[in-house]
Design a protein that fits this description.
With 135 residues, the protein is an alpha+beta fold. It is 32% helix and 30% strand. The protein has one domain. The strands form two sheets. A four-stranded mixed β-sheet has the order 2-1-3-4, with helices on one face. Helix 1 crosses helix 3.
């Protein structure tokens, strides 16, 4: 079984904003940990990176799991936009960037723990009756 995980982020002359960069690091850490955890179960996580132009800034700092936005795998999560100084520096103008809000906490960088929860949920949704290693 393969999960396809896509990290979408702004790219301006090969650079991304601090928030997206940190989310990418958290994502790679989560994938590494879960790949090792699920290796014996025949689960493979395929990582993809999509660099977005400034015209697609609203989709930046996003993670898709099998094409589904991560927030749909995290009950109660919602997408919001907050001012991102780093994006502003890259784009030369005040810019809002994508963030997640969950349980009263705002996440400008999506932490590995939330990513792991979302990936486990995606796996559990594929395996009826399974809790995908306890969430």
């Amino acid at each position: 079984m393969t999960l396809v995980v896509e990290w979408r982020h702004l790219s301006v002359q090969g650079q991304t904003c601090d928030r997206c960069r940190d989310t990418g690091t958290e994502l790679r850490d989560a994938i590494e940990a879960l790949s090792a955890e699920f290796a014996g179960d025949g689960v493979r996580i395929e990582y993809r990176e999509t660099r977005l132009s400034p015209f697609d800034i609203a989709a930046s700092n996003g993670i898709l799991v099998d094409g589904m936005p991560i927030e749909r795998l995290l009950p109660g999560a919602r997408v919001t936009q907050t001012c991102c100084d780093s994006c502003g520096e890259l784009l030369g103008t005040v810019t809002d960037c994508r963030a997640l809000e969950l349980g009263g906490t705002l996440y400008e960088t999506i932490p590995a723990a939330l990513i792991r929860t979302a990936l486990r949920t995606a796996l559990a949704n594929r395996k009826p009756g399974s809790d995908a290693h306890g969430g």
